[in-house]
Request: fold
Amino acid sequence: MPSEDGEALLMGYRASLRDWFTDPSAANLMRLRGELQVVSRWLDVRKKSALRKSAEAALDAVSRFYHFGEEIGGFTASTRSAETASLFDLASVGILALENVRTADKPSPLRFLMSGLSEGLMFLGSRQYVSGSDAVLRATYRAHALAVQDALWSLATDFRDPEQLDSIREARAAIGTLFAQFDEPSVPLGTKVALLQQLYGLVAIIRCAKLAEDLRGIAGTTSKQDE
Reply:
């Protein structure tokens, strides 16, 4: 396989990722999803199992974010502009994450996880982006809250020291604290659902940024293998 394949793969993925961060439309999200499928398949053919696992995690996160957005998008058309604004807020986090991966000496996109939860999401929580009947919103929140917690926990276990009990407990406590704040009676149901969307998006951003980091050396590795 030509040595240029690895570089072309990385460039194509980065381009689709940047397009989504710059314009977080459904069309760009679907293009990113397609590019992730290409990346995953290419890595499978090259038998790069660790990198393929990273690609599959990113693909799953992007798919979950898309499906949840489609689900809550059916509640009301009147909130569309506000939902779009929230996605642009989220995209700004994504651009920073991608720049961090591209320019930092020791890239660490995962630091956006805790900072994003503690700062950006609480800011978003002050606004209600999604409206609908209480019964529908409550069912949606309950159905997805556990899945989002599991996605955050998966991130935490991937990027924290798995051998240190204190580190494990700290990560789990941060997730527990976040969702305890969600469950406060003063938080409207619509806001809770909107916050889940932001968390799905944040997980997708981090997974995609992590994959971009993982793929940085693939062109050079491919060249050496083809010599």
